[in-house]
Amino acid sequence: MKKSLSIVASMILAGSLLAGCAGDKSSGDGDGKTGQITFYSPETPDMTKELGQKFEELHGGSVDVQYAGTNVLVNRMMAEKDNPQGDVWYGGGGILPFEAAADKGIIGSYIPDFAKDWDTVEDGIKVKHEDGKYVGTEIFVLGFAYNTELVSEEEAPKTWDDLLDPKWKGKIQFSNPAASGTATLMVLNQMMQRGEKEGWEYFEKLVDQANSMPDSGSAPTKAVSMGEAHIGVGFDFMAYEQKAKGESVDFVVPDKTPILTNPVSIVEGGPNPDGGKKLMDFLLSKDGQQILANWYHIPINPEVESKTPLTLEKVKPHAVDLDIDWVNENYDRVRNEWKDKFQ
Fold this sequence. Notes:
alpha/beta, D-Maltodextrin-Binding Protein, domain 2, 12 strands, globular, signal, thiamine pyrophosphate binding, ABC transporter substrate-binding protein
């Protein structure tokens, strides 16, 4: 990423030391303690629990991790809008759910000092909201998992058009765009790159290639690990998690593909805004980023090394421009059209 990220890489460390010396003052009731922080997240429960435990170890207080799917959490925050119960919302398979939530009055504006000097878009990747409604914590790459016992590295698909090769008929899985945000991103990207007419023609062919379209975004990668599919569309960390477990899985970054930050936001009007802000600071610190890296996510803090072969520097040449305004305007319509065409 641009120099601005590396310039501020040490700032959070100094901030953490100062906070440790000065004592915690992040509390909803001003008692000088961190207090309880309610942490909404659809990300891996064991990972978010580990993040909460590390924060408690470093800063005190307690982190109440509440896990649910992204749509469930958004609906919950909408229902709680007049009496918010959460403090921080982290994760949703990339920026799209956060963009859609930005004007709903459920997320507030806060950018940690670590990210204050970032441009809104760095090297074609949107890393924070222009009005401070979210900030990226890690990098997600949409691409192809493949079973290394069934597919060689040389013959694995390298572009989205390669998925249409007749040799993959009945051997591909991707998740259902009517249910999965991962697959919705795949569809929206192709519509933006090809235009809608050619985009729908592409998916008519791709659907014919698939042996299954499960609802879960991670299911195609798991199917690849079990040999139920040769190729699965998903995010990079899904493949590298399976590979770390000893499964015969590897990952291809397509020539041009969506590369997104996975964000965190403060909940508007939450009961412990100071504690929530401190938790957001922690997620961008070396300690928080190391946990994300240990779970095979690509860290955004340049002082933390990726545990996978992928780094921000390696993947950013593959990034496509995503028209966020178009996505916000057409997200629901495109999903509904998918249902009409393919379900």
